[in-house]
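Record 1 of the preview.
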Amino acid sequence: MVNKSVLFVIPVLFFSGFLLYLIIWNLYYSFTDWSILHPVPRFVLFETYVSVINSFGFINSLSHSLEISGFMVITGNIIGLLLAGLLFSIQSHRYRTAVMSIFIYPLTISMAANGLIFLWLFNPNVGINWILGLLHLPQPPWLTSHYTLYSIMLIMAWAYSGIAMLFYLASFMNIDKSIIEAAKMDGATYFRIFRKILIPNAMNGFIVSTALLFLFSFRVFTLPYIISGGPSNYYAQTLLTYQYFLFVSSYFAQSSVVDTIVVAIAFAVVVPYALFGMKRWVHA
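->
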């Protein structure tokens, strides 16, 4: 049994060590001035950090990443909670599974495919605006200037809200059924049960879904890259697309700085959140 356990641990240790090596390697070059202008890296401590943090590109992309993350955490949790409540109200396991498969279907599609699909839907000649035009309704400029960022948020809400729904539904399923049955016998409507029983017992689902929604939205790269046609569109530039833009422009040290900041922010937000969740579950 011990030998079998070691066999399972070895791949974990190998890939964890390789990942740690890459993080340390990236951290080292973030303290240099390595770029097309300085082909030989020179150690400059925090000089590169200061230049990157004070640049317009970094401030712009950071604000976009935070806007997307804030929107996804709030909207994703609300949509996920409502969808989970809807699924929980379906008594038939077969029908519930069928409806749930519809809501989680966007999760099975790659974000690259989502981007291409919505590029077609947002096309003013053949997409949503064509239908709105036939109905003589306003036609939003989905992919124009700052509207591009809003379009990205809508696509991500469509794609990732199913994650929150799954964890909220799991929380609802763990509630003692006798409590719900007693509420029904007292004449409580489903809306009252949802508000007074389901939502107060959904904290575990909220903890997990919030952490995942933040991680997925804060590290988004493929969707803004495809929707905006590349990494240089500053209307839709996120931290990772800005990092890629710096890298392909041969500003390697600046790219490493952005990468390091992304890892640090994700670590600072998710780890305390995870520890809080673990402490709650242990004492539950």
